[in-house]
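Hello support,

Our group uses your service weekly, and this is the first time we've seen a run hang past the timeout. The protein is UTRA domain-containing protein. I'm not sure whether the cause is the sequence or the server load. Input pasted verbatim:
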Amino acid sequence: MEKNQSLHAYIKEELLDRIKSNKYKKGEKIPPELELCKEFNVSRTTVRSALNQLTLEGYLYRKQGKGTYVADQKVKQTLSSTVKRYSDQIAIQGKKAKIELISINVVPATEILKKSLGVKPKEPIQRIERIRRANGEPTQYEVSYIPWDVAPGITQEHAEVSLYGSLKNAFDVHIAKTTEHIEITLADEIISTRLECKEGLPCFYIETIAEDDKGDKVEFSRSYFRGDKTNFMIERNYPPNKE
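Update from on-call engineer: The timeout came from a worker crash unrelated to the input. Re-ran successfully.
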């Protein structure tokens, strides 16, 4: 155990290592609390604290009166440069992806949309509300805003596949750059309903501005990802050192 590391944090880390190394397999029941107490020589309160944290983070789940089990692996998504669609990234992990459209409507540009998209006041903007699912479970709730002039008349058919792919194939709009800001937020009433989770669940929040190959801003989006179902990979390439 590292210096200044609390007992429950140490136990959580040990159990997480067992889950990630597949010692505790998906769907498998982990040892009961009392057995873990004996193994780590700690109180039941300490073990329970570690298990509660792993449950909150989506690595474990409880069955009433039966025990604690290893949850399915979190959906992995890439934040670094990638041309792979959501469905492709999910398929690699052996899961079935689905994009579900909630609504498409046209709204007047607000102050935040004027600033984010560089549009005029009250300019017509298409608001596209979607949910992404993996094996039927919601992992991402997204609201995208695209100016009408950029891609007039986006349909359900366009929205229930890769939106960037639809912009390219149907409207000749080529996404060349995205700028993303990520932070942690807590699920409110709307987010918890869309993501089918409890209010207050920690979620990743990503705000994105997309630009086309001319440098024009063509999309602004807000996305919420279940923290217990999703993790992200960032890959960086560094140029070789030059003397």
